[in-house]
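Customer escalation, tier 2.

The customer says the design service returned an amino acid string that "doesn't look like it belongs to this structure." They asked us to rerun it and document both sides in this ticket. The original structure tokens are below, unchanged.
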């Protein structure tokens, strides 16, 4: 089983993998373990530094969780998709409908969105992941268009083109109400993002995650040792669907409205751009790329609402040309440059003091 990502990006993948292998073991452990605390610390710092922009920061946190779901399927499974918004939109509408009609606990709404997104991913993944290349890419787009059209036609439940409104979640833990200033919304979104990163890191480190990476690199070898590449990919696609569904539900809870654009093709394409900016196959690249894209978008759109896309395009071209591993690869490059100071030998063997 191969995919578009395997055919279109072998050079960049090889380059980034070789860069990762050259990082000393101690450096890898430091980069790995400080990543999530840094995200949490940066998020809390932004809460105090940008108190007037908490709405934007909340959208960034929810979008980062969505881009993280795309990183799981593309960066770790090699599944090229432009229909990830189908699961995001499904989770958002499921949580919104549940909030309007049955329940309003924010954690329960996240669970509803995650289950809905995972079920859609499981059902569609079992159908489309037998394909590969451009056929698979087109099928993922078709899934997204179908979900969007279903949401448009089910006007009684979703509000159609007018959107689904009236979502009023209960206070978090019964104590913290969602106020008009967005303080609770942002802290809640930040907490969900940090937990999502922890769960995703555990998944990619598990035997299942390693098997999925093996399918991406050499599916024939996985088949030869008795594994089923398609089964691994379908399971990974469903797991990523849960993440996307939770991200959609988080957006519905924090914004109070769900629109058709939440399942649109443009949202899937933007998520792919954010992931490329940050760096695929690294988890933290999803957060960095989302913050960079949406932050630059916010600044440029405010200063030049007619030409901001040109600047975004130039920025993306610069990243692809000079940092093919994404923005997150800057840290990896710095780690490699600082390696001699840690006592590493020139021939690339183990670091001084490393038991190996």
């Amino acid at each position: 089983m191969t995919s578009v990502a395997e055919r279109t990006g072998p050079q960049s993948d090889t380059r980034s993998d070789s860069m990762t292998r050259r990082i000393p073991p101690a450096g890898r452990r430091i980069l790995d373990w400080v990543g999530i605390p840094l995200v949490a610390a940066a998020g809390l710092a932004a809460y105090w530094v940008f108190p007037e922009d908490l709405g934007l920061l909340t959208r960034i946190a929810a979008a980062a969780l969505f881009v993280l779901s795309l990183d799981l399927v593309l960066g770790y499974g090699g599944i090229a998709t432009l229909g990830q918004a189908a699961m995001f939109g499904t989770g958002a509408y499921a949580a919104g409908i549940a909030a309007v009609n049955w329940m309003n606990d924010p954690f329960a709404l996240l669970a509803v969105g995650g289950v809905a997104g995972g079920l859609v991913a499981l059902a569609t993944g079992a159908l489309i992941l037998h394909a590969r290349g451009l056929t698979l890419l087109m099928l993922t787009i078709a899934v997204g268009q179908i979900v969007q059209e279903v949401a448009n036609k089910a006007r009684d439940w979703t509000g159609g083109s007018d959107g689904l409104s009236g979502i009023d979640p209960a206070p978090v833990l019964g104590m913290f109400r969602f106020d008009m200033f967005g303080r609770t919304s942002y802290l809640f979104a930040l907490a969900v993002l940090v937990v999502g990163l922890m769960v995703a890191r555990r998944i990619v480190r598990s035997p299942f995650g390693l098997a999925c990476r093996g399918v991406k690199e050499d599916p024939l070898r996985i088949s030869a040792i008795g594994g089923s590449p398609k089964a691994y990919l379908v399971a990974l696609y469903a797991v990523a669907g849960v993440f996307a569904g939770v991200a959609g539900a988080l957006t519905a809870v924090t914004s109070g409205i769900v629109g058709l654009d939440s399942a649109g093709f443009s949202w899937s394409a933007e998520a792919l751009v954010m992931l490329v900016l940050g760096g695929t196959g690294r988890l933290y690249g999803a957060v960095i790329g989302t913050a960079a894209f949406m932050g630059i978008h916010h600044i440029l759109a405010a200063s030049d609402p007619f030409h901001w896309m040109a600047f975004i395009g130039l920025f993306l071209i610069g990243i692809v040309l000079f940092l093919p591993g994404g923005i997150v690869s800057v840290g990896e490059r710095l780690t490699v440059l600082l390696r001699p100071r840690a006592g590493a030998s020139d021939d690339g063997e183990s670091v001084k003091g490393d038991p190996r």
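Tier 2 assessment: The sequence is consistent with the input. The two ends are 35 Å apart (CA to CA). Residues 1-27, 342-356 have pLDDT under 50 and may be disordered. Sent an explanation to the customer and offered a walkthrough call.
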